[in-house]
Design brief:
This protein is an alpha/beta fold and 338 residues long. It is built from 12 helices and 9 strands. The longest helix has 18 residues. It is globular, with a radius of gyration of 20 Å. The protein starts with a strand and ends in a 12-residue tail after the last helix.
């Protein structure tokens, strides 16, 4: 059985506030824990008013304190935005508060627009492998005598850094993740690149480590699940509008499907929508579950991480619940649309 996990971006719907969205994340995590999802991760995004997940470390604590068994983590911390020592301190603290339940996913993208990125004073993204190595060495006090960081202590001490996952939307860091013995996550939910080559590169470069004796690949996917294909397609119109608006720099909240169904798209919007829909799994529970099984088999993924970006709390929670209940009863006669 391939495990299912959740990536939450805390989407903000029209008529609701970011505060509502963050409260909804707790309810979603508690539901997913009951349904048997393995992980609940938060992404790091900045400057996007329709996504309330700029501080994943805080949200991890928020949700971990309200749950008891599901693993909670970052999907991910955008490492160039942060000093490695600060990331190490944050995640040592989280690991001390919630032993054996925290994951540290890291990425090299800024997670925002160029102006906001400059305001974050990021490091050069090309230094990502060096930052990653520095993070690990600081945590383990692994710098040799005479090194400027040899006497630096990450506190709280006596707490291991949580398992590290390198997250990517291309193959640029796949070999780095494999060679360092980390887990690997591919963001198929927004990447235009095929996941197969990057995953293969990760597996080819993999060196076993204490936390990862074998390679482990998480495939991130976008899902909209409803009782019927028709209803799922109707709910997905909200994300169609958000995707088009985003390309215009318009970050308004997710519109209701009623509003989205009357939205006047321009001719140039259609290719954007079609490309985005190609990255989504939209349909009834049996169809979505069957298609996810197929892409997991095609890509040799070890785990599937689902994100559902639609209007409304009830509709989002229902999508995750329908998928979880169909996951063990997939009608194998439902053909893949991939």
């Amino acid at each position: 059985m391939i495990p299912l996990s959740v990536l939450d971006l805390a989407p903000v719907s029209e008529g609701f506030s970011a505060r509502d969205s963050l409260r909804d994340s707790v309810d979603l995590a508690q539901l997913c824990e009951r349904l048997g999802y393995v992980r609940f991760w938060f992404a790091e995004h900045h400057g996007m008013p329709n996504i309330a997940c700029s501080a994943p470390e805080i949200l991890i604590e928020h949700v971990a304190s309200a749950t008891s068994t599901i693993r909670v983590g970052s999907g991910g911390i955008m490492l160039p935005n942060h000093a490695p020592l600060r990331v190490a301190e944050n995640f040592h603290t989280l690991a001390a508060l919630h032993p054996d339940r925290i994951d540290l996913g890291v990425g090299r993208a800024p997670g925002t627009d160029p102006a906001t990125s400059r305001a974050l004073h990021p490091f050069d993204a090309e230094q990502f492998p060096q930052q990653l190595q520095e993070l690990v060495m600081l945590s383990r006090r692994g710098f040799p005598p005479g090194h400027p960081f040899a006497t630096v202590r990450v506190v709280p001490e006596g707490v291991p850094l949580p398992p590290i996952w390198v997250l990517a939307s291309s193959g640029a860091t796949a070999a780095v993740a494999g060679a360092m013995g980390f887990g690997y996550g591919f963001a198929r939910h927004f990447s235009p690149a095929p996941p197969g080559p990057a995953i293969a590169a990760y597996r080819a470069a993999f060196t076993p480590s204490d936390q990862f004796p074998a390679p482990h690949v998480i495939l991130g996917v976008a899902v909209v699940c409803a009782p019927t294909d028709e209803e799922a397609d109707y709910l997905a119109t909200s994300s169609d509008v958000v995707w088009v608006r985003r390309h215009r720099g318009d970050m308004r909240p997710f519109p209701s499907p009623e509003e989205a169904s009357t939205y006047e798209f321009r001719p140039e919007d259609r290719p954007l929508i079609e490309a985005n829909r190609q990255r989504q799994f939209v349909g009834s529970p049996a169809r979505v579950a069957a298609n996810l099984r197929q892409i997991a088999a095609d890509t040799n993924a070890d785990e599937v991480m689902v994100t559902t970006m639609i209007y409304g709390k009830a509709e989002r929670l229902r999508s995750y619940e329908l998928l979880a209940r169909a996951w063990t009863t997939t009608d194998q006669s439902v053909s893949s649309t991939e």
